[in-house]
Each structure stands twice: as C-alpha cells, then as structure tokens.
C-alpha cells in the first residue's frame, strides 16, 4: 500500500508540474526593468528593458534566451531610402561610440521568433533589427542629439508600415554612416523637412520626433513636419513606460514586386535584413497617440502617398515619391488630469475598434481620479469617456493596458457586468497594482495579491501587459514576469465584488 501511495503521489507531482510548467519559468529571468513586451502567440514572446537587455521565450515562459545586442554581435548599416542598401556596407560595431549594454530598450516589435526590432529611449537613441533570433543585430537608425527621447515603436505585421514616436525636439534629423572600414560614425547631412503648417517659424520650434518605415523596420525616415507634431502646450510630451502611447489604426502598401535580378529558384539564406524583392510602395498610414500636458489630448493623424506630376512629351505622367504627406490631423481632449508627469501612459485598440487609455501620475501612484478612459466601438478614439467615478476607476497610476479578443461568456457572470454576446477582458497595470474590466474599460476592479486558480502567485504590480489567445503576459521591474491562463481571469467575473 505504501508503494502504491508513493507511486500515486509521484504521478500527481509530475502531472502538476506538467500542467504549470509553461506558466512559471524554470530558469531565472535576467534581472532588468522590462517595459518592452511583444507576444506572438501562447508560446513565443520577446521582452526588452534596461541594461541593454533583450530576452525571448519560445516555450511559453519555461525557458528564456538572453539575446541582447553587444559589440560582438552587432553591425552598422547606413540605408539608402526605402532599404536599397547592400550587405557590403555593413561593418562590425566593435569600436563604435555606442554603449549597447547601457541602453534602455523601452519598446520592441517582432514578426516571428527570428525577426524583431527594438528601440532605445534616449542618450543617443538607436533602433536595431535582427532576423536570426538575436544572433546578429543591425543598427538601422541612430540619433546622437542630446535631447532625443523616443517613446514608442509600432509596426503593422501585415504591411510592414510602422512608426516611431518621440518627445518634442528641434526638427533636425541626423543621418550617420560608416566611414570606410574604421567603424566610426560621421555626420553626412541634415534633412530639410517640407512643412505643411500655418506657422512660418515651425522649423525653429520643438516638434514631436517621428519616423516611419515601410519595410518592417529595415530602414527609417522622418515623417513630414507640420501642425500635427507641434505640441499643443509647453508640457505636452509622451511616456515610454510601456511603449504603448502609439497605436496604428490602419496602414496600406502596394504589393512588393519581385526583383528582376534575383534568381527564380534561389533559396539561399542571408544575414541581410532585406528580402530579394523590390520594396513596397507606401500608400497610407493612420495613427493615434497620446501623452501628457496641461490638457492631455489624443491625436489621430493620417498620411498618404505624395505623388508628383510632371509633363513629358505632352503626356501627364504621375511619379510616386513613395513619401507620406499629411492628409488629416485631429486632436481630442481626454478626461485625464494634466500637469507635469500626468496624462496617458498606455493605450490599446480592440478588435472591435474601441480604444482604452490609462495613466495618471507616476509620482502620485495611489491617486485614482481621472486615470482611465475608453472610446466607443469603431470610432478609433474620436470620442472618449472617463471611467464611472472613483469606484469604477483604476486603483491608481497605470502604465500599461491590454484587451483580449472577444470570447464566449463565462457561465454565472455577474449580471451587472454582462455583455450581450461576447466578453472582452481588459487588464491594466502599474507600479502599485493591477485592475481588470469585463465591460470594455467602463468599470475597473482591483486585483489583489493572491494565489490564482492555476496555482500562480500574482503580486500585482507590473509595467506592461499583452494578451495572447489563451494567456495574459505581464512584465515589470527586477525581472518580474507572469503568464496567466485566461481561465483564471474569467473566474474573477463570477463574483467580482470580492476583487
């Protein structure tokens, strides 16, 4: 009997460890403050953070690979417009004046388990890309200006069109290239922007830093300067607390054409970040972004391809410059308190077209007045409403927010939180705790520290959060990480008054 008992006990332990192995990493995560989080599915996720740290898991958090850019595995590249550069112009970064190990990578985007783009905030901001899972990184953009500070990076995984947003700075874009084989940076020119503004002195004022890509982050160029990136007041800027102050609402490109010089059946692999196709042509990009200021506002801006007409042999020929021009720009006041350090820190866009925004003031983390807002379905942020009073608001300052896809209702869900057909679960998190919503961010319920139904220990405070199909991923300071089954969250809706 004793033998049978021990066998049964061993089986239970093995089954239990298999059930929860993917929800708890068995190896310590590299200690860093993580703010960049990109989740591809239930198994694959990329994290980025302080001390030049980038890590990746391909098995749902059981193990993590540290794949941080360092001088020994990083190359330099100067790109001609739209990514027409060749691999011969790459050089090792062994002696370059960039301390990669000191960078704070505030945001990250990934196409799959091999291809990713990371963005550092300030102190000579850099954007790097890998196409081989972090074995080799390529610096695809850098800016040495003293006051440069980048806040968010977004790329549309379907079209390859993306944008980087930064704090206001005098509009000078510095491009650098490698000087021969000496691995040294040299200033080659400053870009002159064509402005579309009623203000003749706009080029002398601080403007939001803004870059765009049309090739999945292989190359970056400045967006046109105009009233759209002129701060509304002296305090307006953005927060890089989770890399979520920017969302892509829509983007379009023409289909890429096969390069005539490439071989028809060529299957050779290369370390070049470029594919063997001609770059796609930019068609349009619509983005929404928000931050802080005296009166925090949400901006929605649309860019379209700029076409130039020329006359040739009595026929009108339209030549595309493949560059964006500003089509529309609208600013909407948000129900957030303003002032230094106050405003929107994170946003997300649901599959129904409604948006959530969270924030507050990181210096007063326990203040929960006017710290969250939601927009109505399918208007992409054109109209916002605040949460329903202090009771329905978040529990304080929140830096990250995410919302799941529509899911079947949980049996027994509290009637006051019932959604007619499907429920979407929303989560927001910050330095003093996390909250959950079952009604698209109209009401928030605080989630206390607890042992979850799956056995996971939830300790409340994180920097960023993202849903995959069946899990909620959260990362924070000092290497904090958790991956929660959505079933754990759905069970909270059965008796929400206890949360």
What's a concise summary of this model?
The chain is mainly beta and 499 residues long.
Description:
The chain has 499 residues and is mainly β. It has a domain at 69-253 and 278-290 and 297-333. The chain contains three helices and 36 strands. The chain has helices at residues 2-20, 389-392, 486-491; strands at residues 34-39, 45-49, 54-57, 65-66, 74-76, 91-92, 105-110, 116-120, 125-130, 137-143, 150-155, 162-169, 174-178, 185-190, 207-213, 221-222, 246-253, 282-290, 292-293, 297-312, 315-333, 339-349, 355-361, 372-375, 384-386, 400-403, 407-408, 422-423, 426-430, 433-437, 445-447, 450-451, 457-458, 464-467, 471-475, 481-485. Strands 6-5-10-9-8-7 form a six-stranded mixed beta sheet, with no helix packed on it. Strands 19-22-23-24-25 form a five-stranded antiparallel beta sheet, with no helix packed on it. Strand 29 (426-430) and strand 30 form a beta hairpin. The protein starts with a helix and ends in an 8-residue tail after the last helix. Mean pLDDT is 78; it is low at 1-22, 78-97, 173-195, 262-271, 308-321 and 413-421.
């Amino acid at each position: 009997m004793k033998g049978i008992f021990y066998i049964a006990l061993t089986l239970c332990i093995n089954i239990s460890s298999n059930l929860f192995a993917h929800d708890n990493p068995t190896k310590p995560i590299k200690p860093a403050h993580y703010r960049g989080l990109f989740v591809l599915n239930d198994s694959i996720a990329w994290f980025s953070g302080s001390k030049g740290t980038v890590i990746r898991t391909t098995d749902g958090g059981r193990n993590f690979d540290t794949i941080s850019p360092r001088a020994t595995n990083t190359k330099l590249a100067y790109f001609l417009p739209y990514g027409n550069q060749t691999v011969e112009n790459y050089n090792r970064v062994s002696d370059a004046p960039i301390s990669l190990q000191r960078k704070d990578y505030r945001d990250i985007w990934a196409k799959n388990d091999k291809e990713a783009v990371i963005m550092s905030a300030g102190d000579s901001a850099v954007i790097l890309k890998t196409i081989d899972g972090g074995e080799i990184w390529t610096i695809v953009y850098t800016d040495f200006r003293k006051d440069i500070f980048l806040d968010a990076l977004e790329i549309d995984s379907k079209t390859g069109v993306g944008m980087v947003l930064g704090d206001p700075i005098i509009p000078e874009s510095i491009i650098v290239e490698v000087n021969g084989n000496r691995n040294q940076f040299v200033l080659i020119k400053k870009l002159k922007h064509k402005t579309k503004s009623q203000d003749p002195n706009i080029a002398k004022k601080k403007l939001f830093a803004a870059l765009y890509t049309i090739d999945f982050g292989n190359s970056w160029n400045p967006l046109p300067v105009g009233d759209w990136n002129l701060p509304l007041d002296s305090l307006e800027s953005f927060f890089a607390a989770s890399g979520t102050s920017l969302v892509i609402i829509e983007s379009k490109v023409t289909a890429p054409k096969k390069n005539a010089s490439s071989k028809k059946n060529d299957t050779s692999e290369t370390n070049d970040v470029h594919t063997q196709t001609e770059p796609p042509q930019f068609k349009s990009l619509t983005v929404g972004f928000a931050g802080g200021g005296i009166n925090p506002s949400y901006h929605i801006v649309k860019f379209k391809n700029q076409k130039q007409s020329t006359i040739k042999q009595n026929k009108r020929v339209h030549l595309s410059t493949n560059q964006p021009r500003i089509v529309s720009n609208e600013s909407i006041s948000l129900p957030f308190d303003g002032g230094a350090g106050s405003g929107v820190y994170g946003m997300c866009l649901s599959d129904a077209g409604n948006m959530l925004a969270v924030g507050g003031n990181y210096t007063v983390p326990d203040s929960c007045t006017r710290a969250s807002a939601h927009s109505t379905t399918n208007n992409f942020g054109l109209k916002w409403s605040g949460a329903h009073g202090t009771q329905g608001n978040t529990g304080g300052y929140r830096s990250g927010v995410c919302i799941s896809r529509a899911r079947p209702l949980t049996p027994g869900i509290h009637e006051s939180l019932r959604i007619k057909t499907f429920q979407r679960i929303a989560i927001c998190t910050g330095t003093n705790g996390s909250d959950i919503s079952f009604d698209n961010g109209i009401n928030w319920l605080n989630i206390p520290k607890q042992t979850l139904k799956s056995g996971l220990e939830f300790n409340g405070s994180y920097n960023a959060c993202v849903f995959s199909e069946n899990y909620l991923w959260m990362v924070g300071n000092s290497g904090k990480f958790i991956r929660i089954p959505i079933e754990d969250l759905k069970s909270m809706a059965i008796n929400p008054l206890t949360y």
